[in-house]
Specification:
Structural class: alpha/beta
Largest sheet: 5 strands, mixed
Strand content: 15-25%
CATH superfamily of the largest domain: Periplasmic binding protein-like II
CATH architecture of the largest domain: 3-Layer(aba) Sandwich
Distance between the termini: 94 Å
CATH class of the largest domain: Alpha Beta
Order of helices and strands: EEHEHHEHEEEHEHEHEHEEHH
Radius of gyration: 29 Å
Number of strands: 12
Shape: elongated
Strand order of the largest sheet: 4-3-5-12-6
């Protein structure tokens, strides 16, 4: 380097000023190397893999895209394969091994299927903005059946729950339209064709944008759609799928808390109050 690094003394060596600078530089290089090594280790440890999931059309068009987008942003080396099915037909591709996990409503107890998470989601009334029945709190079902109703098609699991909801009323309910497509029902409500009954997760993004309004049904007529995340009973999940399952369950729990805060899912004490009010 053109300058002495050490100064010879009677009992050893001592660093010169140039030597001190060299030592300082070497220490900095070693620190940077350790940082680089740590970052490379992090890259190696970052989870990679494929997640195959089946869900309902309503969930795929509702809250799921935002959840998946955030997950992919945080885990760019994970590939997700998403397919849509309707109702309990989400079980078949999980059983066959075509997909790893399923997410759907009203999933029956099925041999060979294990539950990864459950959420109890009530159905309620979906209205267009500005409708006369829009006000805070649960809605009286007797008022709803006086309106033009757009309902899920007979034979669907949602319609079965709607029928149970309406069964305690002493009136014959005749919808003006029936469809097996929840997206169609939502669009018709937006167009002012009538009201429909769905669960608040199906319309959470529409309500956030102010395009629809959701009101829970007052007791004692309220009925629920159980939401289940599930997998094959004897098929262990790989690391990427396990990571996504943990992420998805946390996100769904957050959505339920949001809906409870908005009053779209009634807490037990609120259910008792609404029950007493409408008796």
């Amino acid at each position: 380097m053109g300058a002495p690094l050490f100064e010879r003394l009677p009992r050893g060596l001592r660093l010169t000023a140039a030597g001190e600078l060299c030592i300082e530089h070497i220490r900095e290089v070693l620190k940077n190397y350790e940082r680089l090594e740590g970052r490379i280790r992090s890259l190696k440890m970052q989870q990679a893999g494929k997640v195959r999931i089946v869900t309902t059309v309503g969930l795929a068009a509702g809250p799921l895209p935002e959840i998946i987008a955030r997950f992919l942003s945080e885990h760019p080396r994970v590939f997700i394969q998403l397919r849509n099915d309707s109702g309990s037909t989400t079980v078949a591709p999980v059983l066959s091994g075509e997909v790893d996990i399923g997410l759907g409503f009203n999933i029956p107890a099925t041999p060979g299927i294990r539950s990864l998470g459950n959420f109890d989601i009530p159905i309620g009334v979906v209205l267009p903005p500005g409708h006369p029945l829009i006000e805070p709190g649960p809605i009286n079902l007797a008022d709803v059946v006086e309106e033009r109703l757009l309902l899920a098609q007979p034979g669907t699991s949602l319609r079965d729950i709607i029928n149970l909801t309406l069964a305690r009323l002493s009136v014959q309910v005749e919808p003006v339209l029936e469809s097996n497509a929840s997206e169609m029902l939502k669009q018709l409500v937006k167009c002012g064709a009538g009201l429909t009954l769905l669960n608040p997760l199906d319309v959470i993004t529409d309500c956030r944008r102010g395009e629809l309004v959701f009101r829970p049904i007052a007791e004692p007529h309220s009925r629920h759609q159980p939401l289940k995340l599930f997998a094959r009973a004897r098929a262990p999940l790989d690391a990427a799928t396990s990571l996504f399952v943990e992420y998805l369950l946390a996100e769904l729990a957050g959505l339920v808390e949001e809906l409870q805060a908005k009053g779209h899912i009634l807490m037990p004490s609120e259910r008792r109050r609404s029950d007493a009010y409408f008796e």
